[in-house]
Design goal:
Strand order of the largest sheet of chain A: 3-2-1-4-5-6-7-8
CATH class of the largest domain in chain A: Alpha Beta
Distance between the termini of chain A: 57 Å
Number of helices of chain A: 12
Structural class of chain A: alpha/beta
Strand content of chain A: 5-15%
Shape of chain A: elongated
Oligomer: homodimer
Chain lengths: ~280, ~280
């Protein structure tokens, strides 16, 4: 097949590895540097991406727009691409609810583009076997083929837009939801003066859980600022299916309390607990 | 020490093993059969417990009253024991919030009794090493000694009433909270048509989670009718500490939806999911 030109919005920590994966398969990758942070510029500069400067110019250049951004920004980003008159394939790979994915679909289809729903599971795709890009929609197969020989495993799971987002919501509902729960519990135990007793009980009957809590502090607190929006998307997905949204409303609240850890390096569980109880 | 006479309210599936454990250590154990179910009578009849028929007579007979009941019934049970003029040691071993434990304390102390807070972690204590009874309060040590040589491991964790309840809340917050979360996720995945894709992703990146979901259906759905109250106690405990109560409001809602599985034998995940989506 002809290699499609892929416009990447934006080369964040995750997005830059998705763009690099597309390059491996031979697709030219472009981005738009206007208004992006220094960190994003540095990440992009490490790869032979074409800098089209503006979103408008990138939209003209691209056959595919690949949206990888925090969930709360997904719909606005789609609107800006639609406003620029994009008529290629728009892939929303963000952690949004099926309802938000359908809203993105409406916006881009109104501008004449095709919509492919996506959901990324795993860490930034630097090596093979760690990360999957699930895709759904009529042209999902075509997008999956852009990553055939790359370290990113792209998997088309059907023609139904919304399916890839639903899968991502279900997956993150457990991983990020249970991490938030663990952090809240550690804070509660500390507040009640039973943290040592809880640690000893966990050692007996829940081996590994204390380590998971430390890992959640280290790994999740620095990303809490963008997890809040994802938790709200998940809560909405549960509620739309007639299931309880409370778990992830609670998780959203908890991550909101930890937003100040943005860009911090590997905070300890003690630091995270102290912030939750402040 | 003199063996204390222990009045057991009530010999449910858990309570009967706590009574049996006290017997092992030489404490006479009494109960009150009036108004109890056939299942409870059968369980009690399997042990040399003394049947005092009424709560009033049991209260007169007992040095210690040990309350083991569903959390929503704990305060009412304490009130009935106080009303009968109990002035011994009242142990509340139920899955209640520290605030509810303090309410129980007030009620029994007003009648002249001493209060010991308790929390049970583990399955019914049929064999050594499976089950802990955490105790807190001024006379916690004295109660712990009643189980010195029994299969139940009784652990005094300090003089502060409320600590044992707090520990139980923290513990169950994860075990029962994450089970509820898993069941909700399986229902959501089914509703969205991505349950097969989720199972495959879990096999890659969350080995064991699909089995945990099946275990949660089998083990938790039959007890969901009494987990709802426990989840509400946990939510209240979080909120009182300035932490999100949503996780366990969601879990309470979920277990409420499964209350009809009471007394069912090992329901399958498919059956539980179908009920959640009905």
């Amino acid at each position: 097949m002809t290699n499609l030109k892929i416009g990447l919005l934006h080369p964040g920590a995750m997005g830059v590895t998705i763009g690099a994966a597309a390059l491996v398969d031979g697709s030219p990758v472009g981005w738009a540097s206007n208004g992006r942070s220094e960190a994003t510029r540095e990440r992009a500069a490490a790869h032979p991406f074409e800098d089209l400067k503006s979103v408008d110019a990138l939209v003209q250049w691209s056959d595919v727009i690949l949206s990888v951004c925090p969930p709360h920004a997904a719909l606005e980003l789609a609107q800006s691409v639609a406003d620029a008159g994009f008529s290629g394939i728009y892939v929303d790979a963000n952690a949004v609810s099926p309802a938000t994915a359908h809203a993105v679909q409406e916006v881009v289809e109104a501008a004449g583009a095709s919509f492919v729903d996506g959901g990324i599971i795993g860490p930034p795709a630097r090596q093979a076997g760690t990360t999957r890009l699930y895709l759904s929609g009529e042209r999902a197969d075509q997008i999956a083929q852009c990553f055939d020989r790359s370290p990113l495993h792209a998997i088309a799971i059907g023609e139904q837009p919304g399916a890839a987002s639903a899968l991502k919501m279900c997956y993150a509902a457990y991983t990020k939801g249970s991490s938030a729960l663990l952090l809240a519990i550690c804070a509660l135990a500390k507040a009640q003066g039973v943290n040592e007793a809880l640690r000893e009980e966990w050692e007996i009957s829940q081996p590994g859980l204390a380590d998971r809590a430390k890992g959640a502090a280290r790994g999740s607190a620095p990303k809490a600022w963008r997890f809040e929006g994802e938790m709200r998307e998940i809560a909405a997905t549960f509620q739309a299916a007639g299931l309880p949204g409370g778990f992830h409303e609670g998780a959203a609240e908890l991550y909101h309390m930890l937003a100040g850890f943005k860009d911090s390096e590997a905070p300890t569980l003690e630091e995270v607990v102290a912030t939750l109880l402040a």
